[in-house]
Queue: 3 jobs
Job 1
Amino acid sequence: MLTCQELTELVTDYLEGRLSLWDRMRFRLHIGMCKHCRAFLRDRKLTIQTVGKMPPDPIPPDVRDELLDKFRNWKND
Amino acid sequence: MLRGGSAGAFDGQAGGDDPSFPATLGRRTVRQATMERGDDIHVKTPALSGASVVAASVGTSNPGASAAEDRALIERLLAGDEAAFSGLVDQYHGRLLRLARSFVKDQATAEEVVQDTWVGVLNGLRSFEGRSALKTWIFRILTNQAKTRGVREARSVPFSGLGNGDGPDEPAVDPARFRSDGMWADPPRRWEDDTPEAVLLREEARKRLEQAIEDLPPRQRTVLVLRDIEGVSAEEVCNILEIAETNQRVMLHRARSALHRALERYLEEE
């Protein structure tokens, strides 16, 4: 039986699809029986999704203008 | 230490897609402007809420354009279409800066790396063959720029030969939260928010996550940005960073665990 603590260290391998068939079964079996680890897995997925939606800073207008100047120079080369 | 010196700045890339070494195309003026602007670039503008609308279409929610879309864009760029370049810059500049920040220690240097990256993109455009996605190609140019700069100025982070990622070998979850038999003693509590959008609506949650990303050891930060923000595949990340797959996975695990802890700390304080 996989412990909860072990599961928290295997979660990335699980999500990356890098667990062996056997370990994947043990992982899923544990998740099926342990609501705390289900919560942990849910929170982990939510963390990843949230990070994936963090917006970058917008480009400052003067930097944008300078890059467009570079593009014009490049195009006329 | 870093592999390859400045002469090999673009080695390890797929054949004909190598951009030539970035030259002098107006670089000086932009760099001066970057310095004059100084710390203003750290300031979060009110336009940020507008930016999140733009960002909703990038990152992991949109893993990238198809090869056909890339090709169409390249054709427009090669034809000198300014609107196409302007669109490219709007789409990538902030993201490139975020990636550059994972390689170099200060914002001004990151700005320079991104400027050099744009020069590299323009110089390489005519020989781009589409063997990798445009996005991956641009990120690779940035990575090589950052490495080259590291060799030149010893200001960036050495990338290879440091074992399984930098930083201490920290457990994913504080061991004090488990009983001696490895079962939860202090289990995760229910979070009020259950969508990324709901979490990000909280200004403070976003700040905590940004801070947690900034606090990551540099190589973990690069891996996290490429994988979880930019949606680059594990294989491509290993390729770009020249690291082994297991190493990449260990760094991803540590980085994700750190952000998970940060978010949990915040949401449970609420």
Note: The domain at 175-269 of chain B is CATH 1.10.10.10 (Arc Repressor Mutant, subunit A).
Job 2
Amino acid sequence: MPDRFTGLLARFAGELRAAGLAVGSGDVLVYCSALSQLDPADLVDLYWAGRTTLVNRHDDIARYDEVFRRFFLGAESQDDELTLMLRASLAAQGALAIPSVEPGDPGEEDDAVLGWMASDVDALKHKSFGACTPEELAVLRRIMARIRLTPPRRRTRRSAPATSGPRPDPRRTVRESMRMHGEPARLYWRRRKVRLRPLILILDISGSMADYSRSLLQFAHSAKRSAGRVEVFCFGTRLTRVTGAMECRRPDEALERAARATFDWDGGTRIGDSLDAFVRGWARAGLCRGGIVVVCSDGLDRGDPAVLAAAMEQLARLSHRLVWLNPHKGDDPAFRPSTLGMMIAAPHIDLLLSGHDLASLEKLAALLPGLN
Amino acid sequence: MESPGTVGELTETLRQGGYLADRGLATALFVALSLNRPILLEGEVGVGKTEVAKVMASVFGRKLIRLQCYEGIDTNQALYEWDYARQMLHIRALSERQLAGPDASDAVDKLFGPKFLLERPLLEAVRAGDQAVLLIDEIDRADDEFEAFLLEVLSDFQISIPEIGTVKAERPPLVVLTSNRTRELHDALKRRCLYHWIGYPAAEREVEIVLIREPGVSAALARKVVTAVHRLRELDLAKPPGVAETIDWARTLDFLGATDLDAGHANDTLGAVVKDRDDLEVVRDNLQEITSGA
């Protein structure tokens, strides 16, 4: 392969990196050696070799396609001679079907100014967590970091040596019996290990919950730091997974990243549709199997009640325990759900708490280990 | 069989094995074979991820070694294990014959010899080298500790057994990993692998797939079944039917002697393609529309 061509491939990898794909130099090496096995002048090979070596998650494929189209087929390609050669081969080859950029690409809507709209409209805007005063954040962070969440445990299939137990440990018994001339003098035992159940937080960030959602995300962040496997989702009119954003060590940055990932901050609510999306996209695939699902919402749903009912029923079946936090419950022990959404959800809920202040979040943390 | 020289050759070989691979999949497999890299396949349920490995094994005359992952899988089930029961019996037998002297140490060495070693898939694959296709199925079901361990094996294809020594593959086997995306795999593992996403095939290709897998089915029936399945996929079902379901459905209809797909036949055989109670209700309501037209 000519050196000039390798340079072109490296520039392409650079473009991909600029578009946010994690492309290491090792990946570029593999890309180049893959192409040395294929026909580098063939645009189709160029496309597929790159897709199989430089992309390693499904969500990145759209961005790869976009960069590929811009880089190799776009008007602004730098290396005229090479791209001309490539395009000629494309014409000879027939067509290369790269799916077009999906409609509703957020980039195109950046400059659309959306003000307060009817509750059902996707409020496509970023709302900064910076609006919250630094002192307020600092106090919250200190207190939240104190809460240690320990989800209940479950037994795993793996076992570990134990002083007594239901299963013998043949490996250890034989090893020890070697010392006794092959006489198994003592039986050793194994016991099943225990593991924390996964914890899934699904947070309502719609307008009616705006006062609580910020502190809830803070709570989610400290939960993610303290418990084992925690997944965090946000929803208003649609569901967004923010687990990745919560990986950040610094709470401010984590919250800011979550806000950027979520488009419908402070908008309307579609609990039914969002939970339905969760059930279809994640729960069915096994995300919350054997886990504790914590939904935090006031139950003010603008969608179809039947969808919510079906989604709640399935969610209750797919998870181990279902906890609902409703800030409107407050400290009132005789609270009766008044919103339609809450009434529909009530039969499927294992535990209903308020979550409107720190004391109630601490109560959740205290009750969690007992949900076995 | 020899390794293929071009992507086209590989596609043709796979077709003869009864698998229709598109350009992307064929390229990925070709690169995996030539560069000796593991390939990670992700995609919807029932689009033929596992099938790829089976067909690759059969067309290249390699041995298929399958490691089915599940939660809690550990090294004993993946690598090797000593056959303790046999060792015990052997020790008993030895002590009854009162062996002593130079024979004894020899006998003890034999205790940890190949005779008492139970090979599990990974060791088997490393031993077989390029005579094998190693299928690591549903890797997303295993715990992440197992993933880290797998990383080690996949990077140098060498396994150390303290009692015997190190086993190394001269030429690594073709490794196919599949994942249903119930969780995101570690980047380190993904970086070691080529990646390919298998989506649902286009209608014409799916008809071809049905015909190649079930040669007894008439082309007209296959076309109708595929059209109906494509409508089902648009229906927003909880579990949309995969290609495997399409093939199953065509086979079921053919077995029952149906030559055409009408609402009646579809209703009787719906269990072959829709496998969720809530989905069944949705589909039954729209049955006429799904089966009508070509």
Note: Chain A has three domains: 3-93, 129-150+197-370, 158-195.
Job 3
Amino acid sequence: MTPVEICRALLAGVVSAERLPELGDDEVRQEVQYRLSQAGCDLVYSRHFDSWTASFTRGAPEATVIDSPTALDSLDLAVLAVCWLHLRFLPAENSRLPVDDDALFAAEEPLEIPLEESEVAGSIPALSRTRVTISVGKLKRARFLLQREGKLSAGPMMDTIDEVRATEQARRLMLRHQRLARLQRQGEEQSAQATAPGGTDGAADAAD
Amino acid sequence: MAEEPGEPGKEPRADRLPEGWAPVLTVPEQFTPLPLVEQALPIVAMFAGLVGHGRLARYRVAMLRELAVLPRARLPIRAIHDSVPWMEQSSATRLVRDLRGAGLLAYDSRAETYQLTREARVVAAVCGALTTARVDYTRIIKILAATMRLADAMNAPAQVAYATFLSAIAILEFDYDELRRLLDDYSDESLLEAARMAESHVEDMRSLLDEQADMFARFHGDAQFLEHDQRAHHMIASLGRLAAEVISSLSMRAGMRMRGTLRVTREDLRGMTAQSDTDTLAALVSGSAQAPVFMPTPDTVAAFTALDGYLSRERRRPLPPPEPTDLRLDPTDAPEADPADSAARALEELVAAGDIGLHEWVVCGTWEGAVGRMIDAVEAWSRYGPGGDNSMLVELDAKRDLCHIGQREVGWFSLTMLRKPAGRSPRDAG
């Protein structure tokens, strides 16, 4: 296929890398990237699905000013973030933990556990169930998510997320959450000790 | 280890061998590397000429380097003086004579000029390349590879490159042993440093094999060489894997420390997302997640879900206020009869025929008419009933029951019976 034909295919949908062997050539890939960039698009490769497609260039105008059925608003992105946390962040974090002290390193691919939509809705109580359903529908159409046997798993567009940056931010949020939970637990324990019989002396000692 | 430089004016060390001494060989000389070395001696001797006379060596090397970079090949003594302005001219002249004596400078008596010999240019270049305080061990394979290239350029025998290759393999083997030793010592910092160095050596060795592939091809008939070649590739694989394992393991441990051994469960994750606002969550992916360009098929489930949500919102809206209408205005100049009086008369007439329900008179015509008659009946009862002047010959008996009407726009009516009061004559309406 010529670079123009490849661009047409990429703009039409997600194409398996096997069907586009031409993109393995640096010159062809650069030509395709250049042509897509002229129309405000990026060439996107999905590592997990070994496939190519085109997405809008990052830093495009705000989605709110564009009347587009595919544009993702901040609520859609919040739902996407929750799905990414469950489907990619959680398995990746846990796969980095050493399973065995004797093993130098465990180099297995993180295992993704599919999600129920109810679990997504339960993770964002700020959004109504209907709103989560609508966002999940948009994310499925945009191939950020796939649905198999009623469960959600990561789609090829999930690979476009900048995992390094997102992982760092997620770790910060998680650490803050864990610290707050720990402080809350400690506070509850202290207040329980203070109210327990004979606990006031200990509290007084601690205050001293 | 570098040998300590001797102090100026000191006697040579006692352990240095006297010049007249020669080692005893166990085999004839032609079976030793000495003939090969003999070939290299003329140039090696020039190095000796440069550095072999104690404290003057650095002046000679410095002057040779200055002369090697001059743009002219033939140099009159004045040009040489100009090229080393930092040295007194008579001293420079003496050093030039010394270099000439060592075979590094040739003198043309007719033109009265000096020029560097070919060998001297190589010596100057090598001396320039060696201008460093010590050999950096991380670059040792690179240096050996460079000497192999130099040997190739000098058209040296292939055995020289072969020997250098063996030396490079020995370095990899040393690195491997060192890594194993440090692994047993549990010394993280030294281990990581050694692993990184070993990894760089492995990479350099791969480059060396690639670069010198043509040269090694000459030895492919040599079984011993093939054995060494196999040894080199084995070391590249073993050392490379071990170094990668060590680096990965130590980096992972460092990463764990940096994260404070963060362990994430699904429950934690759910708690974190539940407590975060949607903007914070969206910020995790908003920088990079961009919608694809292709237009997917619409999701009918999502569309009808959205429609249902929209319609649900519509139903919950409060009813709109009624449309404004003009009020009916009655003329004031032709007053009608008092409706309460009319009502009293009508009720008395009804009661004269027997007991009857109030609704029989009230429910008639339109809703507005019925409401008006009800008001009139109440007004008549107030004025002319027991609460008023008690002149009305009708008694209203309000029951607790409801009477079903179902017509004339009236559904139900509170049951009220009209009776004629006992022992009273009809009142005079006038």
Note: Chain B touches chain A through 51 residues (CB under 8 Å).
